[in-house]
Amino acid sequence: MKRRSFIFDIFSVGFATAISSRLNANNLNSSPVIRSISTWNNTKEANLMAGRLLDKGKSSIDAVVEGVAVSENDPKNTTVGFGGAPDSSGKVTLDACVMNHLGDCGSVVAVENIVNVARLAKDVMEKTPHVMLAGKGAEEFALIEGYKKTDLLTEFSKKNWQKWSETKEYSPIINIDNHDTIGMLCIDQNNNISGACSSSGQAYKMPGRVGDSPIIGSGLFIDNKVGGAVATGLGEEIIKTVGSFLVVELMRQGFTPQEACESAVKRIVSNNSQKNRFQVAYIAMNKKGEVGSYSIEPGFTYMDYLNGKNKEIISKSEF
Ligand code: ASP
Q: Per residue in 248-294, pLDDT tens?
């Protein structure tokens, strides 16, 4: 699509949506929407946990952290936490961030030996004067806070890495078979939105490589006046467009969550028309508890907990 017609599309859709949002403003449902959504269908249990906590009256920030912890604790989930895929040297390093309804945020980067890094990011947010802690400093902070030191490399992940090491083929392309993140957004009974993102990053990444997942604005962004968004897929491309921030800003202009995710994905596609295909996906939620999602490649799914039901949704995609 030519740049001018793409821009025209964004503004025409945005303008129409802004008008319809204003027309609908008086019809806002007064009963609170309680909802949790999370990236990929391997986060079913995590999303269920978050949804149930919200139903019990927990805040959105507690729900996202405890929900994400279910995936982080699961050795069968080889994309986050315990059992996450290691870097090319065989070391598991984790990234995570959280953001709450007040606009406060916390992040940890390249952390070893700690399983629940989203909870650690929340501790950085609440217990330190900082937003981000990296590497050894983050690990030492965790140990002071009473986190258990845990070897994150499981036998299963080790075997896969050893197999990969036979060829050491380095292809930093994230597709539907190779993705590594749980991103979660929750809206609670007080109409407050929070989010969390946790990842072992790209499998067999270069040591020291950090993706979008712990970067506020790229992997996750919340503005409680507007809504929230979280990303998964090739982190380098998400960072280049400050993807989650972009989705929230589009919703601020009047786009629905669905339209905002589509525009943000199309921005990446239009920047990459000549290059290799890769996966990027967003999920988003607005203040009415409406949600949307979009990905570049087919195959992206997300979990949606609403009214006591936890459903898998197959996302629309560009191709
Ligand atoms: N976004 C993550 C990263 O680039 C990976 C993923 O979501 O699959 O580290």
A: 999 999 999 999 999 999 999 998 875 668 899 999 999 999 999 99
Asked if the model's pLDDT at residue 180 lies above 80, the reply is no
Over the Cα atoms of the chain, what is R_g?
Answer: 19
Whether residue 167 lies in the annotated active site: no
Residue nearest atom 7 in ligand 1 by C-alpha distance: 232
- Look at the alpha carbons of 68, 222, 137, 147 in this order and tell me if their dihedral is positive or negative: negative
Matching residue, tokens 């949606």:
304
174 C-beta closer than 6 A to ligand 1: yes
Looking at the chain, list the stretches that DSSP marks H as alpha helix, in order from N- to C-terminal side.
3-24, 44-55, 60-73, 117-127, 135-144, 155-167, 235-240, 243-252, 257-271
Q: CA-to-CA distance for 101 and 103, rounded, in angstroms?
A: 5
249 CB within 6 A, ligand 1: no
pLDDT tens per residue across span 218-231: 999 999 999 999 99
When pLDDT is averaged across residues 234-254 and rounded to a whole number, the result is 97
Residue to probe by mutation, ligand 1, list 232, 237, 265, 278, most atoms within 8 Å of CB: 232
In the prediction, which pLDDT does 275 show?
Answer: 64
What distance in Å separates the CA atoms of residue 142 and residue 19, rounded to the nearest whole number? 48
Ligand 1 touching residue 224 (CB < 6 A): no
The structure tokens 């929407």 sit at 33
Q: Is 39 in the pocket of ligand 1 (CB under 6 A)?
A: no
Query: Residue 79 has what pLDDT?
Result: 84
What global pTM score does this model have?
0.90
By most ligand atoms within 8 Å of CB, the mutation choice from 95, 175, 180, 293 for ligand 1 is 180
139 dihedral zone (left: phi>0; alpha: psi -120 to 50; beta): alpha
Measured between alpha carbons, how far is 182 from 121 in angstroms, rounded to an integer? 14
Is residue 212 within 6 Å of ligand 1 at its C-beta?
A: yes
* Identity of the amino acid at 1: M
**Which member of 78, 93, 181, 301 is catalytic?**
181
